[in-house]
Amino acid sequence: MAEIRTATEPRHEADTINLGGIVVFGIALAVLAAVIHVMLWLMAGSFEKRERQSFPKLSAVQKDRPADFQERLKTIPEPRLQETNEGDLIKLRVQEKKVLESYGYSDEKKKTIRIPIDEAMKILADPKKAEQAGLRFSAKKEAQK
User: Fold this and answer.
1) 73-101 pLDDT per residue, tens
2) Three-class SS of residue 89?
3) CB–CB of 101/117 below 8 Å?
4) Which of 19, 48, 85, 134 has a CA 20 to 30 Å removed from the CA of 9?
């Protein structure tokens, strides 16, 4: 028949766990993780540096305006108040030049007129013409004040 045995000793190996080995493994794993993180950080820095070198610096206007500005502009409903800074500035300069180089009323109610800027400068440069136009200007008196 089968023999029945009774346990007189514990049936596990209590002294076979190497606690020192587990601690060393944990420390080595933490050091390896730190080294990998530092290497990834350095690699990301080198990628960023390479990317900055491959693209020229943007002007302030280009930084403010997204690359797909013209496509996105079509989605903005009318009326568009300002389509482009450059275009609006050119229109403004043309209007200013037109006003500076033409005759017209500055204020119709007060009957104040404007003359082209070049002609006004010639009148002011010649004291006789300035006096004929009703302007009294003395450069010496203004310089003394």
Assistant:
1) 778 777 777 767 888 888 889 999 988 88
2) helix
3) yes
4) 19
